[in-house]
């Protein structure tokens, strides 16, 4: 088990292009081409969904040249979670981004169709420094933590 490497986190979107644009414009992600348009027997077998079509893109995460990506996919047929979302549900909880200015990025999130969740907090950890953080939701409701650490 020596050659294990984390490669991506997947978000399923209603509108993959719009959601990818949010992460590009607000959080500095970069498209990694080619765009994906997956269909056929092989993807039906992989997903267990007959006649599925999966479209989307991988985004390079800020701060990494050849690191893990954020994979944003849209499925047809789609399957929407109707149970609502809460920060403490099992499964994917949130994505976290270190930013220079939490307040300024929060404003960008809101101006690009996202919304705040909770309040901006500041917590001094003597051994780590000052944490400034807030949870937000992207335009499709996924949770993101915006954080800044200062020593």
Task: Tell me about this structure.
With 151 residues, the chain is of the alpha/beta class. Helices cover 19% and strands 42% of the residues. The strands form 2 sheets. It has a 4-stranded mixed sheet with strand order 1-4-3-2, with helices on both faces. It has a 4-stranded mixed sheet with strand order 5-8-7-6, with helices on one face. The longest helix is centred in the first third of the chain and has 12 residues, at 16-27. The chain starts with 7 loop residues before the first strand and ends with a strand.
Question: Could you write a compact summary of the structure shown?
Answer:
This protein is 19% helix and 42% strand. The protein has 151 residues and is of the alpha/beta class. It starts with 7 loop residues before the first strand and ends with a strand.
Describe the SSE topology.
Elements: E1 8-12, H1 16-27, E2 30-39, H2 41-47, E3 53-60, E4 69-76, E5 95-98, H3 102-111, E6 115-125, E7 129-137, E8 143-150
Parallel strand pairs: 1-4, 5-8
Antiparallel strand pairs: 2-3, 3-4, 6-7, 7-8
